Predict the structure.
Amino acid sequence: MKNKIINWFLWVGLIVIVAIIPKVFGAYYVSLIVTFAVFAVLSVSLNVLLGFTGLLSFGHAMFFGAGGYGTALALKHIAGLSLLSSVGIGVLSASVLALVLCPLVVRVSGTAFAMLHLAFAQLMYVLALKLRGITGGEDGIGNFPIPPFTIPGVVSFNMKGVPENFYYFAMIVLGLSVWLMWFFTKTPFGQIQVGIRDNAKRIDYLGFKVSHTKAVVYVVSAAFAGVAGSVYAIFHNLVSADGSLGVLVSFQPIINTMIGGVGSFFGPIWGTAIFQILEEIIVRFTDRVELVIGVTLILVIMFAPQGLAGWITTLKQRFFSASSHKLEKIS
Amino acid sequence: MNMLETKGLYHDFSGLKVLFDINLQVKEGERHAVIGPNGAGKTTLFNIITGTYKPSKGKVFFKGKEITGLKPCDLCRIGMGRSFQITSTFNRLTAFQNIRLAILSKRGVRFNLLRKVDKIEEITRETEEVLKRINLIGERNFPAGALSYGKHRALEISLAMATDPELVLLDEFAAGMSRDETHNAVALIRKLTEGKTVVIIEHDMDVVFSLADRITVLHYGRILATGTPDEIRRNQEVKDAYLGDLEV
């Protein structure tokens, strides 16, 4: 009960902090935080596959990109489209892409799953470059109109040119996404998903259909990657092959998840934060950001293979052995 | 009625013939043991019955209906449970979460995305009842992988049982257990399988002869004999092939 009250205070505190950030900090930090939130959602959606179902994808960018291109194309070609519907179309494109792929990918796991995704993501990347008529090739799609956020007859917030408004919009959409994914992992379905990670054979013998379960998880994960991509496209008013479909966009969330902790729900969010702060600091001293990040990743894998979240759990167990029941939380 | 029946079952692994013309009948409510030397084809027979492999030839019937080629998940849903020779649990999940997965399956809670699983009280209660019955309530929050060997095996057996199947197949449940652990496991199985049909594979002859109502002896992929423990004990062929001078 006491814990519950403390939790409530923490959440309210977090919401207040998120709400006042644009009033206190400048536009630069506001955009930094939106970028953080976008990649946090992308990393969490990847971790729903990697940490909770045991499926490593080297091509998660294709869903991020599908969301971005879907939204950008819709805003460019459909006049009078509302902001939320444009995000919806982005999410839909990512989900449809996942639905098309899932009959194939649920049959494989491990290395085959990872490499298959690398191949599909590269295919999407090349398509985005080559289908110039639709995707704008290397230039991508930019300067599409961004509608205001309207609740008909009540209010209307202008999104273009007012970073503060967009910040609130992005935070609500992305925050809601994280909450939905968190809830998803807590449902009975989420338990079956974790069972597949641990022992797919046993799940089969317990009467659950492994491939159906994987397919649902896959589509859900893709849909939320689509949310991230869609918000990212509106945020920059630009979607490009390199920025949304490139190989680095696939690897970024994997690195974030590794640093934060595979299998811990909030780990990838911590990972994304650490990664961004590191990057912010490193660029002040050297251009070789990748070098430092790479070394950090190696150190994390060597000394804290469960990432930051796992490391904290280990510390807690060492110092407060009474809380050893927290072991439950890792899984 | 026969709970389980195989008719003319043959199986080969790319040329290696493992089973020849297996006609097995398991009556409703009986405890049936399958024994035989290593490599006799016992586990292969289990794998065919529970849907891991498709037989090269022949048919399998469960409660009078043909089930040849059905998948393990379909078989579980119509009332068949199975435990493995090599312990196969969810090692990073707690004992509680392990059993809860079986209870979720039993109650048909699968694509429920609207409630938190921790908040479904019936499921928590039933899972705890099962844990109490198998003496694992004290290890409720232990990851399955951290349980002692005997307890881990008990969890394995209970996973097969917790979906409340009519037919349970137990593959060498006592393998690697100490005397005491075996004794406890036998008691546990007696308790859990009340009113169920059970097929076991076992090497421990004490267990087999104390637990089984009927015994089938497999030898190089063929059925050598089927009968009550007394008949099997007296059967000269079985003595020559397998039991030897073992006093049982």
Remarks:
- The first strand of chain B starts at residue 2 and ends at 13.
- The two ends of chain B are 31 Å apart (CA to CA).
- Chain B touches chain A through 39 residues (CB under 8 Å).
